[in-house]
Amino acid sequence: MNNVDIISILTKRILKKTVEIQREFPELYELLDETPQFSSAKEKNITVRDLRQYLISLIIQQKSFKKRLVAKK
Q1: pTM of the complete model
Q2: N or C of the chain: less Cβ packing under 10 Å?
Q3: Closest CA to 25 of 73, 58, 53
């Protein structure tokens, strides 16, 4: 699999996770705007590593937010 394929897969996973967060945790979704993603939307040097790290950060934020909601109940 080449980098273009990997980037495409990661981008789709990021979109899917973002939509999931938006649907299930709208409060968290609003906070994602405050999370620095990349230095610029037009950044041409975004790497596979950057995308993986961002996806992992979304997953961690979602799990953490969900734990805090459960703990409040």
Answers
A1: 0.80
A2: C
A3: 58
